[in-house]
UniProtKB/TrEMBL annotation:
<keyword id="KW-0378">Hydrolase</keyword>
<dbReference type="InterPro" id="IPR003646">
    <property type="entry name" value="SH3-like_bac-type"/>
</dbReference>
<keyword id="KW-0732">Signal</keyword>
<feature type="signal peptide">
    <location>
        <begin position="1"/>
        <end position="25"/>
    </location>
</feature>
<dbReference type="GO" id="GO:0006508">
    <property type="term" value="P:proteolysis"/>
</dbReference>
<dbReference type="InterPro" id="IPR038765">
    <property type="entry name" value="Papain-like_cys_pep_sf"/>
</dbReference>
<keyword id="KW-0645">Protease</keyword>
<feature type="coiled-coil region">
    <location>
        <begin position="158"/>
        <end position="189"/>
    </location>
</feature>
<dbReference type="InterPro" id="IPR000064">
    <property type="entry name" value="NLP_P60_dom"/>
</dbReference>
<comment type="similarity">
    <text>Belongs to the peptidase C40 family.</text>
</comment>
<dbReference type="GO" id="GO:0008234">
    <property type="term" value="F:cysteine-type peptidase activity"/>
</dbReference>
<keyword id="KW-0788">Thiol protease</keyword>
<dbReference type="Pfam" id="PF00877">
    <property type="entry name" value="NLPC_P60"/>
</dbReference>
<feature type="domain" description="NlpC/P60">
    <location>
        <begin position="187"/>
        <end position="300"/>
    </location>
</feature>
<dbReference type="Pfam" id="PF08239">
    <property type="entry name" value="SH3_3"/>
</dbReference>
<protein>
    <submittedName>
        <fullName>SH3 domain-containing protein</fullName>
    </submittedName>
</protein>
<dbReference type="InterPro" id="IPR051202">
    <property type="entry name" value="Peptidase_C40"/>
</dbReference>
Amino acid sequence: MDSILKKGLFLVTLTGSIAAFPAVAEASDPAEDYMMPRVGIEEVLSDCYLSEKEIQVENYLVPSEKGEYLDMAFANVQSFLYIRSEPTTDSEWVGKLYPDNAANILGPVGEWTKVQSGSVSGYVYSDYIIIGNNAEQKAREMVQNSESAAPEEAFVYAESKEEEAARLQAEAEEAARKLQEEAQAKAATGQAIVDYACQFIGNPYVWGGTSLTNGADCSGFVQSVFAQFGISLPRTTWDMEQVGTPVSYEQAIAGDLILYDGHVGIYMGNGQIVNAINSARGIGILPATYTNIITIRRLI
């Protein structure tokens, strides 16, 4: 069927519709003077029929605009918001929305709202989400402030229960790995300190001295050894009791300070310390528990 015939059928249908609803004239309006006004789609169709134009109907439709993000919701919480399998607090939680996490609204908004966020679908308590025009505005601001060129990448979505478990496991493994690396680094540094200190075994003890070659007392010896590793220590054993981090004897590693009443040494491991003993014995090695331990301090 060609376009002229289509237009003719449309006009016949339209004319029938107009005839079915005749205009009613008021008593003061002469019936013979009454004429249906030529407006709207009737005028468009008439012009098109006479000029044989192609009709582009979409050009004459009134647009129905909807905000691009009006079907979105955002978590309005300080910590997190549970997504539950059913609209009740007794149901199982299947995911979590963290502050400002985004979701798409799947159902009507009541006391509970059904949403989809990432891989999680379920119900959230409506008091804790931003919706409607406020959500539209928030979404636009987030897109505008995002460094990503893709608008959808401006939003962060929920984490499912399974995703949370996997993340926590990965974080625990990463933390354990870092602790192991730190322990290994500390052990290496501590051993380097011990190795350096042991070079001076046999050198003299001198009261008030700080020279590793010409003589030092216990605190002067320790102070000078650690200075070679960029660690500044106070001059007296009493002040050294407050430095670093306290650890137990069972936790002690090479390079820790072991302090006694008026004395200090560097723990070597294997239950020994290297220290400036006294004027008779000079710099040497003693059992770490040769007398009562006041505190053990870790500086590395």
